[in-house]
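Hi there,

I know you've been waiting on this one. I reran it after we fixed the sequence typo, so this is the corrected version. Both the input and the resulting structure follow.
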Amino acid sequence: MKTKAIIVIAVLVVPITGFLLFLGAKVPVQVKKMQTRDRMGQIYVALSRTPATKPLDECDSVAETLKLFPALAVTHGQIADAWGNPIRIEIKRVGKDFQVHLISAGVDGLLGTSDDITQQYLLTDQKW
């Protein structure tokens, strides 16, 4: 009976373990992509709550983000993505609104390549 149990466990555990090890190389990249998107969401939340004392494109977006999320990592004066590279924050005025474009260089750390992670938001007029 013990032999059958050991065989059943071996037949189930070995393939599952192998499969998980196979996925192991990809899981951290996916987790880091999710973490980067989460940080981008935090930047959006901070910018959307920025006091309406001056236009968004004149605010220090990093400082405003760190007021709400002080635990975020900063590198080269910018909020860092999950790989430690700066997230580029581009803010453009569109009429009375602002288009916010956030860009992470992704896994390879190089902007302008296929692995870049980008998010865009439109923030509406906040009475300035």
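Quick highlight: The chain is about 40% helix and 20% strand.

Best,
R. S.
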